[in-house]
């Protein structure tokens, strides 16, 4: 058989071996996609297996993440640092080859350098997790936006600093998920001509033939988005057709590219063309039969013929040469365009400009009441010129989320403001892709807090992938008023706080808003959710610009307090006013807690210095009560849906008034005159957590809020 | 001007009046859609304003929920019970005309009879909340599925019992949201020919002209889904073209219908054609100018000329006649097809068959370990024949979520098993639509728990709309194994439990699974989320079939316990084994807590009978720790992301072992030998909640978990 055929069959058999050996996994798609993988990686893609951080490499995204085995095998063959041992530990404890690609576990898995959740450190390059269907294609649009933006900023005639392509392999599942519509619509509208989606049209999903669930004319659909479309009829055998289609991409500028590739799931297996090959090993017998059919020796496993090794060795050579040429060009560039180059270098090193903090606005003691979303807008507007890496926008709520209309990316990709349209889900996936791109870009995206529910899978993956993305959520409570319960978040704060590693910050003032942005921007491997109000919030003096400990004493009458009021965001002024009314009779303390996730990680002494033993604590937040039992003895919250009325009337109706908070505080204080005050943050558990031997570098920001021993109780990985 | 024009202009001016009067709201789209609304309601739709519960009425859905004013005005004019007073209280406290349509507040707002969250009771007919963009069009597909299914079951030649249409008015936002792709793809695939979407193509979103964000060829897109498409070029003036397009729908069978209607946002206003009319009142001056331009008297508000009243009075007549004819047909039907009729009547009365519980399977004491998802499958399989109203399926995970392949709806709409494809979001929206249809159908839908993140907005709306939908989530923890952290839910349980009115049940046995289904099926106004494991769960004897109190004592060594272990689902057997190992030295109690939301609503005495004062409580659940502080002093949970390895190894690695639980229990017990045991569920707050005067009928199942006074602290509405 031909050398190419030999390579393809080697990949197919390796895929079957890997899954059989693991006794679990997905062999079907990798076997069907072997021809594409081989042609794409050996004939088309520009990358250097020896340096997977080359900024101008082509990007490869396995959006059908369950086909991770194909990616792992191609990384192994091309010498990108996935060993045979890794292939043999697919889906095993602490492996680098999990069921779905994980950011940072392997060089070549588009993943940030990071400590994986279990403390093992791997170098890798721009990331993010693929897996939940549709996320990878969403990320690919973000990477294409990053490429277009940086090309517009830095490319000069004869100096194509950024001219690579982004290839995303996707499946029927990706095509069916709504996010694929949002992603394709954005890419078509923005004419992202470096973006290539290859659709593994194998006609099968888990439940069976796609005819069960699906009769879209997919090619026509992508034409309606303004994409350049091609069809490869025989993706199993016609290698030259695959190559031709991939080469045609270069002939059509100004449009993204969609290639529908007909393949046979589990090609080579006796179960080929059946969903039975999707998610289970072939079984010993069929595995042997498959190898015979493909001309390989059934008596051996994990075999890579030398001829095949040689073919892939040549990639390494080609890649080294390509990158060397690019480096040479870059040094000329640095000589001819020193200013551009300095800026480019800073971005490539992912550094913030030395003086950026000078741009942060200061509070004026005469602040008028305003929505905290306005404060967010003030900070963003101030930072936008100072931080040339900031890029983002909102899902059709530019005004209401405080981001002014600057030059728009769609008019000129050199601009950093993106109008995402009413597409919350892909907006966040795009931001993940931009952050993954890792050339110093810092994506931000804003929408109403209620719509966090529309984009939760992408928000979660930012945390799992340790991506610096600024998720800006406004209209954060029933206080938004007339739009009513369909738009008033109740459970969203708790939902976001419960996501491992996500940090949620709800500022009450311009100071805390500045502190929030400052904290987030300085953490390159950390996503942050910002929570802002629509309604005006009364000015509170002496709030802190340092939110890094999550909570702090805002007001204290001194002495041991009789009662502590703790609030976040728009409810902090309410706590202050309530304290004032309580003070004639009681020693009070007001704690502002903008970031509970960060407070959770503080040492016991700090927690106790805020919340002394034996002092009743009343918390106030216009959100569900869930989660607050860890911090307070009683909570003024909302555990029903809201209602449609002017915001101040809704808040009054639901009990967010000084009178109500004062009454509850008295009730609480009285009750604990005659009853023991339950201990919060019980010591031993703090100690025990401290004794856990977890590398601090894991940077995990868990949502542990109740007093239990962390690690030994299963949070050992936190 | 013509009578029709008079009607149209009346609607336009009323819309402007309503929003101006409220000083907030959305005038632009209602003014632009007035011609469509007028033609559709006076010339096309079959319904009886006097009986909005007529099962064969045409359904009207305002998917662009912010245009609720149009719906309210049409309900007012047609005499469906929306008074002028209601129009004048748009967006005011406890109004029946909120910013976005709310189920059940008004007859004619597709909403269940229910007590609204604030205790005011309104009769209304099948519901659900529209508002978050894309939800209404998703619901409309569910209603069309219900119509097709019931027609296939009950229509007989000359007896078209169900032959109505479903009209959904949608906007650019609906078109951009991913869920519209999922919905259109499903509708096209299932050839739902009674479904009509009218797209308000006004070329504007909140941020400005759609050209900012959007260049899809939308008509071509819908053709790619197999829809029948039409374009109305002048939806502002050409009333006959609108009527023609709506009449053409009847000429094209076997396909859903898409009408692109060109309109001018804020037609009549001096700001017509600008996004400035989208979400703010016109202002007094422009309002007057608009009325002059439209030939109305600027000096009056809320004017409906008598001529217009008469036109709409005729709808009432027409509707009465139509329904009477249908009733006459039905009585003939009952005579000729008594069996069919009995069944139909039972469904229309939304009753379960008297003997249905007999079908519930019993536990066999020799049960082998199996995934609780298998138990769910056993129960569903047993109920499917007994409950002819059960209809649903899964998002391409039929096998792995325990639902066997029966006859599929797509092969014959008489079948009740739907293959939704990889479309979690619209699957849940479709179920909301089916439940909203209110002819005895009980929708169920299943996917992995992690994908609750893909459909959260629809799950939330089921709770907000009080819809009986069975949300079945399997693969509920890190125990799912090899697929890894991208597929292992950590925060999802807490997320679902935090949604007001949602009940989350996580059974540990076949008994509890039976109890869960029994509880959910008997509550017509209550959605339920079922949580099931992928991995095998050891058989535990003596679990209860009654889960209605949320938690119960499963095992007790008698005497006052030294320590209490509480677990849910797959962690209950672990608690039992740990208790066994503790018992030589300690008095132990094991509590199974399948439904914390239900436990929250129990009287203080019951809570105390399970959790006596002074006894340390250790909880165990393979999910995030958030929320557990309300129920226990320490928690064995997971506050990091999981990892890819065989499930049992992952669980072991994260500390879900007898040894670890026993060690933690000892540590906890020792600690509280020398420290006060913090009180859980502190009494006064329980008492105070009990004194709250909230009608039980609200059926609100809040997630209040910490010991605070409910209502006075803002949960008064719960």
From TrEMBL, chains A, B:
Q: What is its EC number?
A: 2.2.1.1
Record carries keyword Protease: no
SUPFAM superfamilies per UniProt: Thiamin diphosphate-binding fold (THDP-binding), TK C-terminal domain-like
What ranges does the record give for the region Disordered, renumbered to this chain?
697-718
Which Gene3D superfamilies does this chain map to? 3.40.50.920, 3.40.50.970
Question: Which residues belong to any copy of the Transketolase-like pyrimidine-binding domain?
Answer: 370-539
The record's section on CDD domains has: TPP_PYR_DXS_TK_like, TPP_TK
Which keywords has UniProt assigned to this entry?
A: Magnesium, Metal-binding, Thiamine pyrophosphate, Transferase
Per its record, the protein catalyses: D-sedoheptulose 7-phosphate + D-glyceraldehyde 3-phosphate = aldehydo-D-ribose 5-phosphate + D-xylulose 5-phosphate
Q: Which InterPro entries match?
A: THDP-binding (IPR029061), Transketo_C/PFOR_II (IPR009014), Transketolase-like_C_2 (IPR055152), Transketolase-like_Pyr-bd (IPR005475), Transketolase_bac-like (IPR005478), Transketolase_CS (IPR049557), Transketolase_fam (IPR033247), Transketolase_N (IPR005474)
Query: Record's superkingdom?
Result: Eukaryota
Names of the cofactor(s): Mg(2+); Co(2+); thiamine diphosphate
Which leading EC class covers this enzyme? Answer: transferase
Question: Compositional bias (Polar residues) at which positions?
Answer: 697-706
Stated family: Belongs to the transketolase family.
Spell out the NCBIfam families in the cross-references: tktlase_bact (TIGR00232)
Q: Which PANTHER family match?
A: TRANSKETOLASE, TRANSKETOLASE 1-RELATED
Protein name (record): transketolase
**Species name:** Paratrimastix pyriformis
């Amino acid at each position: 058989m031909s050398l190419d055929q030999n390579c393809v069959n080697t990949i197919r058999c390796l895929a079957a071996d890997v899954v059989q050996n693991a006794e679990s996994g997905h062999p079907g798609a990798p076997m069907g996609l072997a021809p594409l993988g081989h042609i794409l990686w050996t004939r088309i893609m520009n990358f250097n297996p020896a340096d997977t951080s080359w900024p101008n490499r082509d990007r490869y995204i396995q959006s059908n993440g369950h086909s991770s085995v194909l990616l792992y095998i191609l990384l192994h063959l091309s010498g990108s640092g996935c060993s045979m041992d890794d292939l043999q530990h697919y889906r095993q404890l602490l492996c680098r080859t999990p069921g779905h690609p994980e950011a940072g576990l392997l060089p070549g898995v588009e993943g940030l350098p990071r400590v994986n959740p279990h403390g093992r450190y791997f170098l890798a390059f721009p990331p993010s997790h693929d897996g939940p269907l549709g996320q990878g294609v969403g990320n690919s649009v973000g990477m294409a936006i990053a490429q277009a933006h940086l090309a517009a900023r830095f490319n000069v005639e004869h100096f194509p600093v950024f001219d690579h392509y982004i290839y995303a392999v996707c499946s029927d599942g990706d095509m069916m998920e709504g996010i694929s519509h949002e992603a394709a619509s954005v890419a078509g509208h923005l004419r992202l001509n470096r973006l290539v989606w290859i659709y593994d049209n194998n006609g099968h999903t888990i439940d069976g033939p796609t005819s069960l669930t699906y009769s879209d004319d997919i090619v026509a659909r992508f034409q309606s988005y303004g994409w350049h479309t091609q069809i490869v009829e025989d993706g199993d055998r016609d290698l030259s057709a695959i190559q031709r289609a991939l080469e045609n991409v270069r002939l059509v500028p100004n449009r993204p590219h969609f290639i529908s590739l007909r393949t046979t799931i589990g090609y080579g297996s006796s179960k080929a063309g059946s969903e039975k090959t999707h998610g289970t090993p072939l079984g010993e017998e069929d595995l042997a039969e498959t190898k015979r059919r493909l001309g390989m020796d059934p008596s051996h496993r994990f075999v890579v013929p030398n001829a095949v090794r040689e073919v892939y060795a040549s990639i390494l050579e080609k890649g080294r040469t390509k990158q060397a040429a690019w480096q040479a060009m870059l040094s000329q560039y640095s000589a001819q365009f020193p200013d551009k180059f300095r800026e480019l270098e800073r971005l490539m090193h992912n550094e913030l400009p030395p003086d950026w903090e000078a741009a942060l606005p200061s509070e004026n003691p005469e602040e008028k009441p305003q929505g905290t979303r306005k404060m967010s807008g003030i900070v963003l507007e101030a930072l936008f010129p100072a931080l040339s890496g900031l890029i983002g926008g909102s899902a059709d709520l530019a005004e209401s989320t405080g981001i002014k209309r600057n030059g728009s990316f769609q008019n000129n990709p050199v601009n950093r403001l993106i109008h995402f349209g009413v597409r919350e889900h892909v907006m966040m996936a795009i931001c993940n892709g931009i952050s993954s791109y890792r050339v110093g870009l810092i994506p931000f995206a804003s929408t109403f807090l209620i719509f966090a529910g529309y984009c939760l899978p992408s928000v979660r993956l930012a945390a799992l992938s340790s991506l610096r993305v600024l998720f800006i959520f406004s209209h954060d409570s029933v206080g938004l008023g007339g739009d009513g319960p369909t738009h008033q978040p109740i459970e969203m704060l708790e939902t976001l706080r419960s996501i491992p590693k996500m940090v949620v910050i709800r500022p009450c003032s311009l100071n805390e808003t500045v502190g929030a942005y400052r904290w987030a921007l300085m953490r390159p491997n950390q996503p942050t959710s910002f929570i802002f109000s629509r309604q005006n919030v009364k000015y509170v003096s002496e709030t802190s610009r340092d939110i890094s400990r999550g909570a702090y004493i805002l007001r204290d009458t001194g002495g041991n307090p009789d009662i502590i009021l703790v609030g976040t965001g728009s409810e902090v002024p309410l706590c202050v006013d309530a304290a004032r009314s309580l003070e004639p009779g009681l020693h009070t303390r007001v704690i502002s807690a903008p970031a509970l996730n960060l407070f959770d990680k503080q040492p016991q002494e700090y927690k106790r210095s805020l919340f002394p033993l034996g002092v009743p604590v009343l918390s106030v937040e216009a959100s569900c009560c869930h989660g607050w039992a860890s911090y307070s003895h009683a909570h003024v919250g909302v555990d029903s849906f809201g209602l449609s009325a002017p915001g101040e009337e809704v808040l009054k109706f639901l009990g967010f008034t000084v009178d109500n908070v004062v009454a509850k505080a008295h009730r609480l204080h009285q009750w604990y005159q005659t009853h023991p005050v339950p201990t919060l943050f019980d010591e031993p558990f703090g100690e025990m957590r401290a004794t856990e031997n977890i590398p601090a570098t894991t940077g995990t920001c868990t949502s542990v809020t109740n007093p239990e021993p962390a690690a030994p109780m299963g949070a050992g990985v936190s």
